[in-house]
């Protein structure tokens, strides 16, 4: 294998209690897209026209036909496809309205899925992930175990993608391991 | 045994065995250590801090100042744990503290006779002179004589968790007011977190004989808990103490997850710190009964009257034979009533008032007690356990009463602590005869006894209203909640009971052994303000934070000064409300998990090559690669330098900051950031640049390459990478927002390796895919470009050199870094680490951390001429200041020992050769040193006054701390190949 | 402390990086030294309302102007620092 996992040394899949799983999502093709000031609408039009995708509003993500757009800040998105692809070339036409930078290998992503996912994330993220507040389609970037971590909810299982700098991959894995080590924090109380 | 045969919230079907001071006892599930000891007839539980006075249990809660024990043993031993909060478990092991050699016979009780030595201010006055006696005599003496429990000396084997919780309404306390508040808010649909420090919900309902909605108090609490569990938004945290209030609705609570078990279950944390963010908070923390002040008020057997009721009703324990009840108001009569109901004969009732109600008279008759209205306690008998009292009636007639239990009701202090954490001062309420919360933290309301509302019906009403209002405030409106019904007679609040006179010490702080005499001494010496008095006497400064005795001390000072309680005031309360284990605050962040670690894509490869890793910020970097036969790092480092200078080496430079910059204004942006010009740099070239801070000092340096007309990649130092990115974001967003430039960190995107040495080109040629021309003509020094390697993988190549050799930096996307470095090594490059890199940069005179220290200018570092005068850039104006351009400033030089073999040391001072060793003659310092294999000598870089003009001069390097004193020649900072022949080769 | 990021919502202050006083105007390149001195060094230290630059470093990476009361920490407003 020429390609190396960001989580080399860690198991690819581990089961925690109650059928909740975590696994690495890699490789990915990711391009950072920053609209020039005043060109946000033109960029959104171009993305819609070319890819049939609506750029998400603040704190949200959208997807269409395998292309995902994740809000990363005002006028700033990450466009993402699974697997390795020539995404920079595919997006080149957006260069009139925005700056494009390849960050496919800059991040590491873990997918946490299952009924205990929220309980585990209570121990990691200083964010309110209650279903009345944080729902599929939302994304937030925050600090977790001293790292910048982006969390994105995919569905109601619930499934969350956690993303950190690639060099921190092992530490994010470890933080998740520690956060899920004990019995559930709250579920036991309501059971 | 003093267990009452019926009642109590204990499980009589099970027996728990435990040990206290080596003796075996048994108790019941539902007991605390204190209730179980009392049930076994054990009244003596500890010795006091200074005087080693025998002490029993005063209270039934976390306010306990006396019955403090060492809990568990070995690595889990924990000191100063109040026995009334320790839930009994099978196999519990506890020992009393601060006694020598045994609890019953304490040699140190002689301290009581040496009391003047330990009086207020003793630390400040007694041990002032001679100073040399402090370490040898005073401190060991005090440490042996005074003090509390012993912490474990081994590593804590348990784990601790930290977690986050968000809610609309946080309810602190689950007594009647808290339960009513939680139910009112929960039923409106608000997200509610209810924190109860004990294992059961109910608060005083578990301790008092009450009826709500036709149910006994504990049954109503259980029914309400069930109702709360039916509200989907309610979270109940038992064994959880809200310990601190911070700004903007932030709270810290500690959950004792497994403290009620012998050891935590597998993977279970012992404790958890919750960081709670709440839009509203209802403080329903109840109140603490306060101690009354009289001589020998600390004897085992003297207890708070409310605590006696807790032991009677909740734990079915009579803490002592033939109780005497002393009360300053109606509250103590509840204890009489409970005794009557349970068939316990009362020896005497002392009420400070001259008039009582007819019901109280009937109770007194039913109890069989002597009634002394307007009476007082004249003398307490019993050292290690109360056996009798001299009591006086209103006429001063004195008589002896045989008793083992004195239940004292001197009024209650609202638990105002959390209301004060943001600076709000409690205010004295004449009506309540207590300090009540003043200015509250935003979003907090207070209900029930914590607000000074002591009646049950009133507390339920206040709790319901506060819960409903809190829910309203977070968008959950509704009709008025049904208030649970209770019929309790209104009671008159009791004044503070301060009884002057009597025999023996009258304590106002049991845990720190502060007496009324200490308060009087403080007053005499002018420490009249309660904040001064507190610090002078240490009153209220022990782990119990004066929950029972705090106000008694204020009252003593008020009496001495003739001021009112309102004028006297009270001290401020600060977090935490009750002590928190440091381990709980650290959570999982200890040992190797103290902080996260960044690893490069070549980490595993480097480990295989024998790398020793060093932490540089969060990064782990390979320092050197130990080979068989090498015994010191210097041997490894020297071999690596020689391998590079004599052949070719490879070094992982992935940690250097990399920022990719795109857009039509990127060139102008770089010109604004750097002192030199980048907009003129041709595509396919790299340039070295220096950045200043706006104050004119050097901020960072590195190279920036132009890969396409509007695409650049900047490198920064490893240490400054995050700060440079923040700085660029500031400059763009705040100073130049209209520029069309975008940039993100690509440090983690690219695995990058330096390949250096006379044979570097051949290795690069072997690593790149076939067909690329990297000859000097096609790809000269300071060239940059896009290539492919590893069969079509995008590859960035830069012809830059930190070592001074022919050198390249080659980068691939991080997933390919491992494969690339293995290919580079297979092509013959020897791995070299950070130390060898550093040696070679010192040999070449390149500034790094020691020189980029935030105090140096571009001129100091020999880069003054790089500063463009044709453009504005960050730091330009301030760099022109005359003092920053003064040639007498210390500037970069090379230093070489005059005597071969002399070692230079970083940090050494530079002085003229013949100058005396005084600070006035200091002319600079050595910033970096290395052993140069190429010169076979230690060499250094330094910052020397007027240095560049002094090449050839012999100066002194002086390192008084390590005894270094060597002569050195001032030379050019570039020790090797000053004309750059090698790097262009 | 919690800061209401105008882009991300209210977050704990450990997500933010603090710089210093906001509202300063960088002098022109040819401004007098006194103007530069004031810009780089001279700061008010009010007991009360104060506008400061904070970066939402772990969030949207935007520089914000946060106006708060230095005595109570009450936050009056938080807006993007881009003029
Ligand atoms: Zn933000």
Give an account of the 3D structure.
The complex is a heterotrimer of chains A (191), B (985) and C (83). Chain A has 5 helices and 11 strands; from the N terminus they run βββαβββαββαβββαα. In chain A, strands 1-2-8-11-10-9 form a 6-stranded antiparallel β-sheet, with helices on one face. In chain A, strands 4-5-6-3-7 form a 5-stranded antiparallel β-sheet, with helices on one face. Chain A is globular, with a radius of gyration of 17 Å. Chain A has a single domain, classed as Probable tRNA modification gtpase trme, domain 1 (Gyrase A, domain 2), CATH 3.30.1360.120. Chain A has 191 residues and is an alpha+beta fold. In chain A, a hairpin with a 2-residue loop joins strand 9 and strand 10 (147-155). Helices cover 19% and strands 35% of the residues of chain A. Helices cover 22% and strands 26% of the residues of chain B. The longest helix of chain B is centred in the middle third of the chain and has 18 residues, at 456-473. Chain B folds into 7 domains: 16-122, Ubiquitin-like (UB roll); 160-287 and 414-473, 3-Layer(bba) Sandwich (FAD/NAD(P)-binding domain); 292-409, FAD/NAD(P)-binding domain, CATH 3.50.50.60; 496-580, Arc Repressor Mutant, subunit A, CATH 1.10.10; 603-655 and 749-840, Gyrase A, domain 2; 657-745, Aminomethyltransferase beta-barrel domains (Alpha-Beta Plaits); 886-985, Beta Barrel (Elongation Factor Tu (Ef-tu), domain 3). The mean pLDDT of chain B is 93. In chain B, helix 4 (176-187) runs parallel beside helix 5 and helix 10 (516-524) packs across helix 11 (530-537). With 985 residues, chain B is of the alpha+beta class. In chain B, strands 8, 9, 12, 13, 14, 15 and 28 form a 7-stranded mixed β-sheet that branches. In chain B, strands 40-41-42-39-33-43 form a 6-stranded mixed β-sheet, with helices on both faces. Chain B has a 6-stranded antiparallel β-sheet with strand order 45-48-49-44-47-46, with helices on one face. Chain B is elongated and about 115 Å long. The relative contact order of chain B is 0.07. Chain C is mainly β and 83 residues long. Chain C has a domain at 1-23 and 49-83: Folate-binding fold, CATH 3.30.2270.10. Chain C has one helix spanning 33-41; strands at 2-5, 9-12, 17-21, 49-55, 63-69, 75-80. The longest helix of chain C is centred in the middle third of the chain and has 9 residues, at 33-41. Chain C is globular and about 40 Å long. The model of chain C has no long low-confidence stretch (mean pLDDT 96). The chains are: A alpha+beta (191), B alpha+beta (985), C mainly beta (83). Chains A and B meet through strand 7 and helix 4 of A and strand 8, strand 12, strand 15, strand 38 and helix 20 of B. The structure holds zinc ion (ZN). Zinc ion is lined by residues 5, 7-8, 56, 59-60, 62 of chain C.
């Amino acid at each position: 294998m020429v390609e190396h996992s960001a989580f080399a040394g860690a198991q690819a899949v581990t089961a925690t209690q109650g059928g909740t799983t975590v696994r690495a999502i890699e490789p990915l093709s990711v391009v950072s897209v920053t609209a020039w000031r005043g060109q946000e609408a033109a960029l959104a039009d171009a993305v819609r026209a070319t890819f049939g995708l609506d750029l998400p509003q603040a704190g949200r993500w959208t997807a269409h036909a395998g292309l995902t757009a994740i809000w990363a800040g005002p006028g700033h998105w990450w466009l993402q496809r699974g697997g390795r692809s020539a995404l920079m070339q595919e997006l080149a036409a957006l260069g009139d309205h925005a700056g494009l930078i390849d960050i496919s290998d800059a991040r590491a992503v873990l997918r946490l899925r299952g009924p205990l996912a929220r309980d585990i994330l209570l121990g990691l993220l200083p964010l309110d992930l209650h279903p009345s507040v944080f729902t599929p389609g939302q994304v937030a970037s925050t600090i977790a175990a001293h790292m910048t971590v982006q969390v994105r909810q995919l569905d109601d299982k619930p499934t969350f993608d956690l993303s950190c700098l690639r060099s921190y991959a092992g530490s994010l894995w470890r933080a998740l391991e520690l956060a899920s080590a004990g019995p559930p924090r709250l579920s036991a109380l309501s059971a | 045994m003093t267990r009452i045969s019926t009642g109590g919230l204990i499980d009589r079907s099970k027996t728990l065995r435990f040990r206290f001071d080596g003796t075996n006892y048994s108790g019941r599930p539902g007991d605390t250590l204190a209730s179980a000891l009392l049930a076994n007839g054990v009244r003596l539980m500890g010795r006091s801090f200074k005087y080693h006075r025998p002490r029993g249990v005063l209270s039934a809660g976390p306010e306990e100042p006396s019955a403090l024990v060492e809990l568990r043993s070995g690595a889990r031993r924990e000191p100063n744990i109040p026995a009334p909060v320790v839930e009994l478990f099978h196999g519990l092991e506890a020992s009393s503290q601060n006694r020598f050699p045994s609890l019953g016979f304490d040699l140190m009780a002689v301290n009581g006779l040496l009391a003047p030595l330990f009086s207020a201010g003793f630390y400040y006055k007694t041990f002032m002179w001679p100073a040399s006696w402090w370490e040898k005599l005073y401190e060991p003496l005090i440490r042996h004589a005074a003090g509390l429990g012993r912490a474990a000396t081994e590593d804590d084997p348990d784990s601790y968790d930290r977690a986050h919780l968000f809610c609309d309404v946080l309810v602190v306390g689950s007594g009647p007011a808290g339960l009513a508040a939680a139910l009112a808010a929960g039923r409106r649909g608000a997200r509610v977190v209810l924190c109860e420090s004990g294992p059961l919900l109910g608060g005083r309902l578990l301790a008092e004989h009450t009826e709500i909605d036709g149910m006994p108090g504990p049954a109503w609490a259980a029914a309400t808990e069930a109702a709360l569990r039916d509200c989907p938004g309610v979270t109940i945290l038992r064994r959880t103490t809200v310990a601190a209030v911070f700004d903007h609705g932030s709270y810290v609570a500690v959950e004792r997850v497994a403290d009620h078990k012998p050891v935590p279950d597998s993977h279970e944390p012992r404790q958890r710190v919750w960081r709670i963010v709440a839009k509203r908070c209802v403080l329903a923390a109840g109140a603490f009964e306060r101690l009354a002040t009289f001589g020998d008020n600390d004897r085992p057997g003297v207890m708070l009257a409310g605590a006696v009721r807790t032991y009677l009703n909740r734990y079915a324990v009579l803490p002592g034979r033939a109780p005497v009840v002393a009360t300053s108001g109606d509250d103590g009569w509840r204890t009489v009533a409970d005794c009557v109901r349970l068939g316990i004969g009362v020896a005497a009732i002392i009420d400070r008032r001259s008039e009582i109600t007819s019901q109280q008279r009937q109770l007194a008759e039913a109890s069989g007690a002597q009634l002394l209205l307007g009476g007082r306690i004249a003398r307490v008998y019993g050292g290690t356990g109360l056996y009798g009292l001299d009591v006086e009636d209103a006429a001063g007639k004195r008589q002896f009463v045989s008793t083992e239990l004195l239940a004292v009701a001197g009024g209650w202090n609202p638990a105002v602590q959390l209301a004060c954490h943001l600076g709000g001062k409690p205010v004295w309420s004449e009506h309540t005869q207590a300090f009540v919360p003043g200015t509250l933290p935003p979003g907090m309301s207070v209900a029930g006894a914590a607000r000074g509302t002591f009646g049950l019906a009133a507390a339920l009403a206040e709790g319901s209203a506060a819960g409903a209002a809190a829910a309203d405030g977070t968008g959950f409106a509704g009709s008025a909640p049904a208030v649970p019904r209770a019929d309790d007679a209104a009671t008159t609040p009791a004044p503070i009971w301060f009884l002057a006179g009597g025999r023996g010490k009258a304590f106002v702080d049991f845990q720190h052994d502060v007496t009324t005499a200490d308060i009087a001494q403080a007053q005499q010496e002018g420490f009249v303000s309660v904040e001064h008095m507190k610090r002078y006497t240490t009153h209220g400064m022990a782990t119990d934070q004066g929950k029972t005795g705090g106000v008694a001390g204020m009252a003593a000072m008020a009496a001495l000064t003739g001021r009112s309680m309102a004028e006297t005031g009270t001290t401020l309360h600060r977090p935490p409300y009750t002590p928190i284990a440091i381990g709980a605050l650290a959570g999982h962040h200890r040992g190797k998990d103290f902080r996260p670690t960044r690893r490069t894509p070549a980490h595993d490869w480097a480990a295989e090559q024998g790398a020793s890793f060093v932490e540089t910020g969060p990064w782990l970097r390979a320092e050197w690669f130990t080979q068989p036969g090498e015994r010191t790092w210097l041997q490894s480092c020297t071999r690596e330098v020689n391998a590079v200078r004599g052949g070719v080496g490879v070094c992982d430079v992935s940690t250097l900051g990399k920022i990719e910059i795109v857009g039509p204004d990127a060139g102008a942006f770089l010109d604004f950031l750097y002192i030199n010009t980048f907009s003129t740099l041709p595509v396919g070239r790299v340039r070295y640049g220096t950045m200043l801070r706006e104050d004119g000092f050097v901020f960072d340096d590195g190279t920036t390459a132009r890969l396409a007309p509007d695409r650049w990649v900047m490198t920064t130092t490893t240490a400054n990478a995050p700060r440079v990115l923040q700085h660029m974001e500031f400059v763009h967003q705040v100073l130049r927002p209209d520029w069309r430039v975008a940039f993100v960190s690509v440090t983690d995107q690219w695995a990058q390796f330096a390949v250096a040495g006379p044979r570097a080109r051949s290795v690069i040629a072997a690593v790149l895919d076939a067909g690329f021309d990297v000859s000097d003509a096609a790809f000269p020094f300071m060239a940059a470009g896009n290539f492919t390697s590893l069969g079509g993988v995008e590859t960035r190549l830069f012809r830059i050199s930190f070592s001074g050799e022919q050198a390249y930096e080659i980068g691939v996307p991080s997933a390919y870094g491992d494969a690339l470095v293995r290919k580079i090594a297979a092509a013959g490059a020897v791995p070299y680490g950070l130390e060898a890199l550093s040696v070679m940069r010192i040999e070449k005179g390149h500034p790094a951390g020691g020189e980029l220290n935030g105090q140096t200018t571009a001129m100091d570092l020999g880069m003054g001429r790089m500063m463009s005068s044709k453009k504005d850039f960050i730091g330009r104006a301030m760099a022109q200041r005359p003092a920053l351009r003064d040639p007498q400033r210390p500037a970069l030089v090379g230093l070489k020992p005059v005597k071969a073999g002399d070692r230079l040391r970083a940090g050494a001072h530079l002085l003229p050769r013949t100058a005396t060793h005084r600070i006035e003659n200091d002319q600079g310092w050595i910033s970096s040193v290395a052993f140069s294999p190429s010169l076979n000598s230690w060499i250094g870089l330094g910052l020397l006054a007027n240095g560049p003009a002094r090449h050839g001069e012999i100066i002194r390097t002086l390192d008084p701390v390590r005894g270094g004193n060597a002569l050195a020649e001032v030379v050019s900072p570039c020790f090797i190949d000053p004309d750059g022949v090698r790097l262009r080769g | 402390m919690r800061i209401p990021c105008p882009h991300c919502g209210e977050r704990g202050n450990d997500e933010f990086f603090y710089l210093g006083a906001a509202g300063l105007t960088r002098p022109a390149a040819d401004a007098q030294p006194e103007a530069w001195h004031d810009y780089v060094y001279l700061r008010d230290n009010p007991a009360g309302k104060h506008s400061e630059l904070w970066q939402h470093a772990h969030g949207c990476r935007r520089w914000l102007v946060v106006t708060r009361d230095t005595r109570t920490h009450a936050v009056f407003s938080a807006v993007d620092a881009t003029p």
